[in-house]
Amino acid sequence: MFRQDGNIKLIDFGTATRVDNCRRSTVGTPWYCAPEVINSEEYGNRCDIWSLGCFSIELVSGKPPFDELNDIACLFKMAEGKPPLPNDVTPLCKSFLSDCLILNWKNRPTSSKLLGHPFLKMEEAQEEVARKQLMEGTQRIALEKAHLDKIKNSASIKIKL
């Protein structure tokens, strides 16, 4: 959720679960699901870092990676890894997204390490530009009914609109 003051509140659609140890079950929305989850490989908390990267792509571009694909085609693309990065973002933003989307989950940064990324440590002026970019992307999301319908009809979640 994007608040009017520019702050972001992450919300859950009911698929969240506590992951203390490595898991192998597959759960999630295709556009945010890490390759190791899709491929039923062992995974840990860093699959959430991948999801954060995908969600961040949506925040800055107005659409998730592989938005043009249906659920199944998206799963195949995500299983291969490396969703395309938006072209119209700063180098720091691209660096942040690239770190989130490292294919081998064991090489992805932890959430603690990611909090130290320069993109998240920007000066106030740069922060305002990034916030504006996020708000513009979020406004595009709100206007895209087709995107909401795609998520609503996804096999992994059901939303009543």
TrEMBL record:
<protein>
    <recommendedName>
        <fullName>Protein kinase domain-containing protein</fullName>
    </recommendedName>
</protein>
<feature type="domain" description="Protein kinase">
    <location>
        <begin position="1"/>
        <end position="120"/>
    </location>
</feature>
<dbReference type="InterPro" id="IPR050629">
    <property type="entry name" value="STE20/SPS1-PAK"/>
</dbReference>
<dbReference type="InterPro" id="IPR011009">
    <property type="entry name" value="Kinase-like_dom_sf"/>
</dbReference>
<dbReference type="GO" id="GO:0005737">
    <property type="term" value="C:cytoplasm"/>
</dbReference>
<dbReference type="GO" id="GO:0004674">
    <property type="term" value="F:protein serine/threonine kinase activity"/>
</dbReference>
<dbReference type="InterPro" id="IPR000719">
    <property type="entry name" value="Prot_kinase_dom"/>
</dbReference>
<keyword id="KW-0067">ATP-binding</keyword>
<dbReference type="Pfam" id="PF00069">
    <property type="entry name" value="Pkinase"/>
</dbReference>
<keyword id="KW-0547">Nucleotide-binding</keyword>
<dbReference type="GO" id="GO:0005524">
    <property type="term" value="F:ATP binding"/>
</dbReference>
